[in-house]
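Chapter summary example.
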Amino acid sequence: MKILGIDPGFATIGFGLVEFTRGVPRMLRYGAITTPPELEFSARLVMIYNDMTELLQTLQPDAVSVEELFWGHNVTTGIGVSHGRGVILLAIAQAGLPLYEYTPMQVKQAVVGYGKAEKRQVMDMTRRLLKLERLPRPDDAADALALALCHGRSATSLLARAGGGAVGR
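The structure predicted for these 169 residues follows.
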């Protein structure tokens, strides 16, 4: 099963493709979609949509795992990320791919084993689980790989095999 993790945004969108074979993860590709800050916001959304559509066609994942938004203190940034996330979800839906959404706490629990783990712990465990020599950069790509791991671990768990796994939305 090939799972594409997506860390949504509007300036930088991280992606990470992980293949699970008999429950063992292997990183296939990671990177980021970026949009130039000097472009109008609507043009950046068009760029995200076009790049996301091309990415989905190129990588051909079996499922996509996207982070649910966490609203921190900066609501203005959160609104922009929400718009970017909406465009990303549209591209996934139009591609007809199964979509799974996870909160940051669920990702931390799946990757580290502790829902309140620090970001550096998640990044280090992602590196270890995928047997990578160094941490993936940018951070958004590492987050996306963690999202793919989260879904892969949920989808291949004994609970999921028994019919009680993560629910696609």
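To summarize the output: The radius of gyration is 15 Å.
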